[in-house]
Amino acid sequence: MAAATALVLGSALLHAGWNLAVKRSGDQLVAMWGANALGGLLLAPLLLVIGAPAADAVPYLLGSAIVHVAYSLLLTRAYAATDLSVAYPVARDISPLLTALGGAVLLDDPLNGTGYAGVALVTIGLIGLGLTAGRRRGLGWAVATGVAITSYTLIDAAGVRAGEESLRYVIGLMATSGALLTTVVFAARGGRLMAAARRAGWPGLIGAGLASLAAYALVLAAIRLAAVGHVAGLREASVVFGAIGGWVILHEPLGARRTTGASVVAAGLIVLVVSGFG
């Protein structure tokens, strides 16, 4: 359990970092494309060396790739409509609880009582972080993003367990979803896509893409070691990192409500960690 916890917390830091980069970008659709497509596309040739994902995992991979594209487009709309420190926690607030319940029902992967209490605390804290007075714009997009997060997490949990490995799966997944997302973004931008990418800065886009892939690879590795609900709850440490980043780097207001929400999330994370060693 200690290994799973360390993997997820490392993932959370990377995840908050690339989301911060997307929010800072002047062209969020291109930045989201870079974060969610380039890493997988660049590393896809590695599959020629290490082998393709297991055949049993491929149906899950294909389904998840479609959901990942929807997630990228929904999150872009949420970021265009409201602050990072609002959209990010709301996008994730329903995911821990839904994922924990879905893991128990669909994957026979229940938590203990303390674990569910930790997930509930995380969810309450995330709601407090996101529902800041006067910041209701974009919440519908953020909630839809949260449903997509729950969906792909459960699909991928089943996929990495069916294939009994996570590295080939995550590279194949990100390459497939990256190709689909590239098609969608190219349809929207046409020949302007490459020019927009140059303006955004290729090194930053590639860095965000690799950080996104690494973050999710760590999550899928952890899912093979611990209950999916436990991992989904711990992953929300990224929201605390994101709120701090929004305050320090983007100069978004923090305030008493967001500070309280972040503190409740942190308390829930501590309970989750303790539950894993109970």
Structural descriptors:
82% helix, single chain, 278 residues, mainly alpha, 0% strand
Task: Describe this protein's structure.
The chain is mainly α and 278 residues long. It contains 14 helices and no strands. The chain has helices at 2-24, 28-43, 47-50, 58-81, 84-93, 95-106, 113-130, 139-163, 167-189, 192-200, 202-223, 228-234, 237-248, 255-276. The chain is globular and about 50 Å long. The protein starts with a helix and ends with a helix. The relative contact order is 0.24. The mean pLDDT is 84.
Radius of gyration: 18 Å
Shape: globular
Biggest sheet overview: none
Low-confidence stretches: none
Q: How much β-strand is present in the residues?
A: under 5%
Average the pLDDT over all residues and give the rounded result: 84
**What string gives the helices and strands in order?**
HHHHHHHHHHHHHH
